[in-house]
Structures are given as C-alpha cells and as structure tokens.
Design a protein that fits this description.
Length: 94
C-alpha cells in the first residue's frame, strides 16, 4: 500500500465493518489481533526483552496485511457491482 492508496482507507474500513454481507470472523480478525497485543498472556512473554515483542509484531503485521487485503477486495467488489445510469435524463416539461 502506497501513500496514494491510504487516502480514503478509513472510510473504506468503516464501510467494510458496517457491511452486513461481510462475515463476522473476518471482522473479528483485526479485533483479535489488538486483543492479543494488550492481553497479559502471550505465546512468548513480553518480559523477555526482544523476543517477547517479536510475536506481538508478527501477529499485528499478519492481521494488518489481512485487513488491508480484505478492505481492498471489499472496495473493489462494491465498485464493480455499482449500478451506473448511462441513459441521460430527459426533460419532460416540453
């Protein structure tokens, strides 16, 4: 994701989470990763200086990649299913 793609990502993310067609487990992936970060029980304890933080970084980066891909896919799907009215409207007053 480059700087130009980040523009409007927040609104796409909100649209993704509000969409009832997106399954709950996909929405739960990002929330679970944040919960893992703040949870006192880790796979590797955070008291181990560097190694304890690497598992947190790994979980967050994997969840971020998943969420970014899902939001992009969702935005592309919504854009491709958007109906466009190509017939010009006629003035009926004449």
């Amino acid at each position: 994701m480059n700087a130009l793609e980040t523009r409007g990502f927040g609104s796409k993310l909100v649209s993704y989470f509000k969409d009832p067609t997106v399954s709950v487990w996909r929405k739960f992936a990002g929330v679970a990763a944040l919960a893992y970060l703040v949870m006192p029980l880790d796979l590797l304890p955070d008291v181990i200086p560097v190694i304890g933080w690497l598992d947190d970084i790994g979980v967050l980066s994997a969840a971020a990649m998943f969420i970014v891909r899902e939001v992009k896919r969702h935005a592309e799907t919504k854009a491709s299913t958007m109906v466009v009215d190509v017939e010009p409207r006629r003035d009926r007053t004449r």
